């Protein structure tokens, strides 16, 4: 049976049954994905990267009052299939990166052996444990142009030298058109968000997306990295801990847990109880996806608001694993959710964010 052709991005928002589509081809099981504030001028930071810098102050960002923000769906770019994989288009630069995550400072939890994802669950469930990883490293990402209306996505603190780096979907932070003009004016991140409780509000410092997304809405590059400002002298990774990363995996079938803050379930369009207030997850084995080309698919009912959430591989019993995918698109008629391939382009973006 041929897969449906209609495709839309998973977006943040409180209303509407928005869905995505795409095709998938199943792969055989492989090995581990491990591989041997005023806003400043917006400008490219290097080949293929577009950035926005907020400076060290929070004055502009602090005007975003999250308690008064009204939600609305963001514009939904259409998905596309075909063409080369992202790594085939980006032949320069290192193709892989594999880093361990970390616990918060002074955490009593020890690094323990990886556990399995357990029984596969394509029906999204509420994650029951907060205050510890993985929930502590994941949170709600808010973006707004006018400070009155905005949308929500999901983002993850990932291990980094600057201890301030996060990972999300490109469409969560950039409209996919207009180059440097496609960014939003206001952003804020709330780690370990759970029903109006979180580990504080963290405002962005730098924000970077790949140019093919910023200029052409290319779904193969639907990922983004950003840094957040410190709270006093304390970096966010010291508070939340961080997930590791595994970019440049060689196969397509891996056990994952995926996380996000959905507002609706897809493809049904049914509204999530307590939409955007609770962290949900799915678990299962990934497979090859054509939406986008070279990407990963997994069966999961999370919809709008879950965009940008992590696909965690090898999560230990202390909640620390490695990000090897990101919630990007979803099929309109099935439970298939997709991630772009995180290879050399993702490595380049990650390294640029460390400067």
UniProtKB/TrEMBL annotation:
Region listing for Disordered, in residue ranges: 74-115
Gene3D superfamilies referenced in this protein's UniProt entry, alphabetically: Trypsin-like serine proteases (2.40.10.10)
Keyword vocabulary terms for this entry: Signal
SUPFAM superfamilies linked to this entry: Trypsin-like serine proteases
Signal peptide: 1-27
Top-level taxon of origin: Bacteria
Keyword Signal (UniProt): yes
Protein name per Swiss-Prot or TrEMBL: Trypsin-like serine protease
């Amino acid at each position: 049976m041929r897969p449906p052709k209609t495709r839309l991005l998973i977006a943040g928002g409180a209303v509407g049954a928005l869905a995505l589509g795409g095709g998938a081809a199943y792969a055989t099981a492989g090995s581990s994905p491990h591989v041997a504030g005023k806003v400043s001028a917006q400008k490219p930071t290097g080949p293929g990267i577009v950035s926005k810098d907020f400076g060290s102050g929070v004055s502009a960002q602090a005007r975003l009052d999250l308690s008064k923000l009204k939600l609305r769906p963001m514009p939904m770019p259409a998905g596309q299939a075909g063409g080369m994989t992202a790594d085939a288009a980006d032949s320069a630069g290192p193709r892989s990166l594999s880093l361990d995550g970390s616990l918060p400072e002074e955490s009593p939890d020890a690094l323990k052996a990886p556990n399995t994802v357990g029984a596969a669950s394509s029906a999204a469930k509420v994650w029951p444990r907060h205050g510890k990883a993985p929930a502590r490293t994941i949170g709600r990402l808010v973006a707004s142009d006018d400070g009155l209306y905005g949308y929500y996505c999901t983002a993850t603190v990932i291990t980094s030298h600057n201890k301030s780096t996060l990972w999300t979907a490109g469409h969560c932070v950039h409209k996919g058109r207009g180059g440097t003009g496609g960014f939003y004016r206001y952003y804020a991140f709330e780690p370990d968000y759970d029903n109006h409780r979180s580990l504080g509000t963290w405002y962005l410092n730098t924000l970077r997306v790949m140019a093919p997304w910023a200029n052409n809405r290319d779904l193969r590059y639907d990922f983004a990295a950003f840094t957040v400002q410190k709270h006093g002298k304390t970096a966010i990774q010291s508070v939340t801990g961080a997930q590791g990363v595994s970019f440049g995996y060689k196969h397509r079938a891996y056990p994952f847990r995926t996380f996000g803050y959905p507002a609706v379930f897809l493809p049904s369009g049914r509204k999530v109880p307590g939409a955007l207030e609770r962290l949900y997850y799915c678990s299962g084995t990934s497979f090859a996806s054509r939406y986008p080309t070279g990407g990963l698919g997994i069966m999961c009912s999370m919809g709008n608001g879950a965009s940008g959430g992590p696909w965690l591989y090898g999560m230990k019993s202390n909640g620390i694993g490695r990000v090897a995918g990101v919630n990007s698109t979803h099929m309109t008629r099935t439970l298939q959710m997709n991630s772009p391939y995180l290879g050399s382009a993702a490595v380049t973006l990650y390294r640029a964010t460390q400067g």
